[in-house]
Amino acid sequence: MDFTIITALIGIVAALSGIILGWSARAKEAKREVRIDAEINTAIRTDMEYLKRGVDDIRIEQRAQGQRMDTMGERLTRVEESSKQAHKRIDRLEQKGE
């Protein structure tokens, strides 16, 4: 074989191996990027679920607080009515005493 042909073949083999190695490195990098993106998305979803549960807990607590406020309002109304009746009785006793 001629030296020129051998040199050309070596050049072609080197070029092809460079292309193949570059392509495989790119494919490997793409897989790594996909894995990293999946990890990031998983972390974000986990954080979102944690936040959703926190918001749900806050809503439940807010609803319970509202119910307690309603109960306290009802009790306050009864106490005011009772106080009003007591004042009426006191006023009648004072009028009898005069």
Automatic annotation (TrEMBL):
Chain segments annotated as transmembrane: 6-25
Annotated stretches, region: Disordered: 75-98
Keywords, alphabetical: Membrane, Transmembrane, Transmembrane helix
Basic and acidic residues composition-biased segments: 75-84
Name of the molecule in the record: Uncharacterized protein
Organism: bioreactor metagenome
